[in-house]
Write a structure and sequence with these properties.
Elements: H1 2-43, H2 49-64, H3 72-89, H4 98-117
Amino acid sequence: MKDDIQEREQETAGAAIDTDELNSIAAELAGEEQQEAGGELAERQGPATAEVIYPLISFGCDLGCPNWMIQDAEKKALADGYADMIDKYWPDGIGAFGVELNALLMTAAIFGPRVAKGIPAREKPKAKEQEGGTQADEG
């Protein structure tokens, strides 16, 4: 009976050691996961989101509201604010959308100045003469 008690004590002592070891290992793994999660943004390659969207914001401000004369510092503040929001919803960055962003920039760069100047995309159709010598309404 004494041997049984000693065996149970040894089993209990061994279980305590195992529990401590398990807790220690779990704490180490949790620390490694946090380090990995924290390092994702640091490991992300390419320019910062604010640098990517700044040209879009700047061009949009210059094209959409030139009379407001939005300053460079204000544009940078807008880019930083929107970059934080974008990073929240796309933590891997918007680098995956590089092709799309480039297409938007090129479209805005080509069409934007023409739209801003009020240049029509097509010539207005010439009024056709109807019977009786009157011109058709243009629209």
